[in-house]
């Protein structure tokens, strides 16, 4: 893994050098964005016959609507915001003789992502626009809720079980610093890539509650309530390459 990271880093720097050698040095290309310009980026991945477009992701792997605003000709603010909702449900039914067993389950969780950073552009060429940047990412991890309801029906009636499991969410912080380039194919339209050193810390989980209500055919309902603690803290340090192509357009 270490050798692969070194090779990728060297290849990235070599690519910038090749592109730089193809153009004469200029102070500021008219193709580049200027102070007050606003731009957005998406990613392109895949081969010629299978090209996919996707959004930029933060250090925690969450999708962002990503944009840049040029405070100065050579200084840009990086901004990103994203909201992800994960929801799944499943319903099953099985007949055993005259008895019908049904089960209905669902789970949900959400993520809110905010990113911000600064980008300093260096002297490039007519089309090549290299830069260095730093960025901070924050992801708010919502609580996870699971509902599991089951029923057993027969001629005698219906017995039910209702179960709800709730788990605490958490938060993730990511900070990255690195470099990249934009290669302008036309005025305000560019392709590019980035390579960054990143540190990501996440804290997820905490208290898990499990509440189950059993309603038998005969007799009173019973409730079982259980709590436990389950928390995971992680720190990841490494190089984050953006091997995908960034497509950017500035207004």
Description:
The protein is mostly beta strands and 251 residues long. It has one domain (2-23, 31-250). Helix content is 8%, strand content 72%. The protein contains one helix and twelve strands; from the N terminus they run αββββββββββββ. The chain has one helix at 2-21, and strands spanning 38-47, 50-54, 56-57, 63-72, 75-96, 99-121, 128-141, 144-154, 157-167, 170-186, 189-215, 222-250. Strands 1, 2, 3, 4, 5, 6, 7, 8, 9, 10, 11 and 12 form a twelve-stranded antiparallel β-sheet that branches. The protein starts with a helix and ends with a strand. Mean pLDDT is 83; it is low at 4-10 and 18-26.
Provide a quick synopsis of the model.
Helices cover 8% and strands 72% of the residues. By secondary structure, it is mainly beta. 18% of the residues are buried.
What is the helix fraction of residues, given as a range? under 10%
Which runs of at least 5 residues are low in confidence (pLDDT < 50)? 4-10, 18-26
Structural class comes to: mainly beta
Count of distinct structural domains: 1
Question: Number of DSSP helices?
Answer: 1
Radius of gyration: 26 Å
Largest sheet: 12 strands, antiparallel
Q: Can you count the beta strands? A: 12
């Amino acid at each position: 893994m270490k050798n692969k990271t070194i090779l990728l880093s060297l290849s990235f720097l070599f690519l910038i050098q090749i592109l730089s050698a193809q153009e004469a040095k200029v102070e500021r290309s008219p193709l580049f964005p200027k102070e007050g310009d606003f731009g957005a980026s998406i990613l392109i991945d895949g081969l010629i016959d299978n090209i996919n477009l996707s959004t930029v992701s933060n250090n925690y792997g969450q999708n962002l609507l990503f944009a840049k605003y040029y405070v100065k000709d050579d200084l840009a603010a990086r901004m990103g915001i994203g909201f992800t909702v994960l929801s799944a449900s499943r319903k099953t039914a099985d007949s055993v003789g005259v008895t019908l067993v049904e089960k209905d389950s669902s789970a949900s969780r959400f993520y809110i992502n905010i990113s911000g950073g600064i980008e300093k552009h260096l002297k490039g060429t007519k089309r090549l626009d290299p830069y260095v940047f730093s960025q901070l990412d924050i992801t708010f991890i919502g609580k996870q809720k699971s509902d599991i309801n089951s029923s057993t029906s027969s001629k005698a009636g219906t017995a039910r079980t209702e179960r709800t499991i709730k788990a605490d969410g958490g938060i993730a912080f990511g900070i990255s610093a690195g470099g990249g380039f934009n290669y302008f194919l036309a005025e305000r339209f560019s392709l590019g890539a980035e390579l960054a050193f990143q540190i990501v810390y996440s804290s997820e989980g905490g208290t898990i509650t499990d509440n189950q209500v059993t309603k038998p055919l005969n007799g009173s309902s019973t409730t079982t309530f259980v709590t436990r603690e389950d928390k995971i803290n992680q720190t990841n340090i490494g190089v984050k390459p953006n091997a995908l192509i960034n497509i950017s357009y500035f207004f």
